[in-house]
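Memo to structure team: turn this sequence into C-alpha cells by end of day. - J.P.
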Amino acid sequence: MDTVLKELKKYWPYFASTDIAKAFHTELEKFETWLREVGTKLLAARARQAAERGNPVARDYPERYVAGLVKRGQTRILVNMFAAYLVHKGLATQYWLIRNKYVAGGESIATWLRLLRQI
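Reply from structure team:
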C-alpha cells in the first residue's frame, strides 16, 4: 500500500488547491496523518467490497485494484475521502458539503463513510 500512498501524494498539490481544502485548511495536516493511518485500511476495505461484488481484479490483485482506483480518481478521490473525514469527525454534514458545492454528490461520501464504519 506504500505505492498507493505515493500515488495519492502526487495529487496532493492539486487537492490542496480545491475549494474544500481551502475551506478546511486547518484540517489538512490532520487529514494527511489520518490518511496514512486509516486511509490504507479504508482503501483495502474498498478493494474487499469490490471483490465481494465479484470484481476479479479486486479479488486476485487488491493492491492493483486500489492503485487503479487512485489513478482513475486522482484528486477526486482525495476530495471525497476528505469530505468523508470531515463528516466522520463531525466538522461538516454531507448535506452541507453538497449544498455548498464542495463535492458533486453524496454517493461517494456515503461509500467512504460506510467503509469507515466497517473498519
